[in-house]
Amino acid sequence: MGALDQFIKETFEEEIPQATQDALRFEVPPELKTTELHADGMLYVVNAELVKGLSSPWCLMTTAQLVLEFKMQGDKLDRYHYERAILRRQAAQVEYLKQYPDDEDPISLPLWIVTGQMKEWLVEKKYIISQVAPACYRLEPASYEVYLIVGNELEEFREDLIPFLIARTGQKLVDFCKWFAGQRPELCEKFVEIAPMSETNRAEVEEILKEPDAAERARRRKMYIEATMEAVGYKKEAERAAQLKTLSRQFEKRLARPLTDEERTQLAEKIERLGDERVTDVVLELTKDALASWLEDPAAI
Fold first, then answer.
1. pTM check: above 0.85
2. Average pLDDT score over residue span 205-225
3. pLDDT tens digit string along 224-246?
4. Domain positions in the chain
């Protein structure tokens, strides 16, 4: 099921800017250097005010970032695999604390598990399961937020829900694909090639995908490619802005004062020229006075 896992990650990355009006971004995190444990994805807030006005489940995100785990059709979500998801979330929490050692109020990273259907064993094991929104359930006890987002229970087919709808299973998946084929034929075509369904159902969806007007299909493909390229560009810009904000905060803590506009400009230039790892080393290693001098020097390395 590797192809399905890759598809849902790519869909989250490509769809989230449009689905959330650029309020959120998604990225696949690198493997941690000290362990092979790494989550399927991380979700980051780009515009907190905009997130509040989004539909569920997007509006359930109340922290700056959270951990995503995907359980596609064919993937198991038994007790063992649930605990593995918890373990990967914990590894992400450790990495977060390592990245922000001076944060006096660190985030307890929430965990979202995106799956096709509710698992009965969760009820049998006496987890407290509270429905907080359509198809969205909070699992307790836990010292942080754990949500199960169930694709089969999403009753509406909407563009902003596509990242969750592709986790559907069985006939629910087929029903979604029939709608998907009319809305996003290019993306649906890629999905149908790897989605688990009978040959009869696959042929039915593929029939919907056969458009008589090739020119219209080419036009829509071009629009999708252009939108994707724009989203990638925005993602990079948002990452640079978030990077600058984080490092500015660290500089201000070490200098015990706000940065001036000129210092902030110098810092942005140094991050671009030297990279965030070098700038992070500087803020952690230099004394307060040496740090101020380094920041003022345009040629500092």
1. no
2. 65
3. 666 656 655 655 666 777 778 88
4. 2-168, 216-296
Burial 270-296 (b: 16+ CB within 10 A, else e): bbeeeebeebbebbeeeeeeebbebbe
Residue among 179, 126, 170, 127 nearest 150 (CA): 170
Residue 249 amino acid letter: R
Cβ distance 146 to 90 under 8 Å? Answer: no
pLDDT at residue 142 above 70?
A: yes
Cα 149 to Cα 167: distance, rounded to the nearest angstrom:
10
* Helix residue ranges per DSSP H, the chain: 2-19, 48-52, 79-99, 120-124, 162-165, 170-183, 185-192, 199-209, 214-255, 261-274, 276-285, 288-296
Burial class (CB in 10 A: 0-12, 13-18, 19+), 12: buried
Contacts of 117 (CB under 8 A, 6+ apart): 150, 151, 152, 153, 169
User: Closest by alpha carbon to 15, among 203, 175, 196, 235?
Assistant: 235
Report how far residue 3's alpha carbon sits from residue 20's, in angstroms, rounded to the nearest whole number: 25
Residue 109: what pLDDT? 96
Please say whether the dihedral angle defined by the alpha carbons of residues 261, 106, 26 and 92, taken in this order, is positive or negative: positive
pLDDT digits 0-9 by tens, 100-134: 888 888 999 999 999 998 887 887 777 889 999 99
